[in-house]
Amino acid sequence: MRARLIALGGITALTSAGLVTAGCTAEAPVVVPPPAQVVEPPAASAGGACVLWDYAFIEDRTGVRFTVAAGDQVDDTATCVVQTEAGAAPSLVLTVVDRTSADAALFTAELMPAKATRVKGLGRAGYRLVRAAGKGTGPGIEVAWLSEAQQLQSLKFTFAAGATGDAVTDMTNRLVDMAKTMDTTDGGSAAG
């Protein structure tokens, strides 16, 4: 009988320590993993001119939260297009031509559209242009400049249909300020 009591005492001790689970009436705790988090890849991961900025920088400058980016590089021209998941507009396109021999006079005479307005204090020469709404989109804004690093750069913003005149004016000012921030002497960007 004493052997049975020792054995029973040993089993009780093992059960108390959580080492014996077979035949127990207590349920094992259910481990619930934390909810999965969607990690948004940075805009720079799209390549092309997207390496010059990130979504936070773009949102800070434009007030628009973009979440989709696509970039490309062909010869010495790099591009980046950012959009929202809602569709093709609004969108913002950055184009950078790595090196040009153009000077400010040539940029203004040959590359600036006739209806564009010069922007003082933007690179060596710069302009802004507002375009009428297109089929299925709102108006477009183009800000282009010959950078201090001797690059041709442009920002083109396209609104979704129905944009107001006040929104266009505000975004034009935002893009000019953004362009001034991005114009550096070494061809880099202030983004990031």
Give an overview in words.
With 192 residues, this protein is α+β, with helices and mostly antiparallel strands. It is built from 4 helices and 7 strands, in the order ααβββαββββα. The termini are far apart. The relative contact order is 0.13. The chain has a single domain, classed as 3-Layer(aba) Sandwich (Protein Transport Mog1p, Chain A), CATH 3.40.1000. A 7-stranded antiparallel β-sheet has the order 1-2-3-7-6-5-4, with helices on both faces. It is elongated and about 85 Å long. A hairpin with a 2-residue loop joins strand 1 and strand 2.
Question: What's the quick description here?
Answer:
The protein is an alpha+beta fold. The chain is 26% helix and 28% strand.
The CATH topology is Protein Transport Mog1p, Chain A
Question: How is the biggest beta sheet arranged?
Answer: 7 strands, antiparallel
Largest sheet, order of strands side by side?
A: 1-2-3-7-6-5-4
CATH architecture call? 3-Layer(aba) Sandwich
Which regions have little confidence, pLDDT < 50, spanning 5+ residues? Answer: 1-22, 187-192
Q: How many β-strand stretches?
A: 7
Mean pLDDT: 84
Overall shape: it is elongated
Tally of contiguous helical segments: 4
Strand composition percent: 25-35%
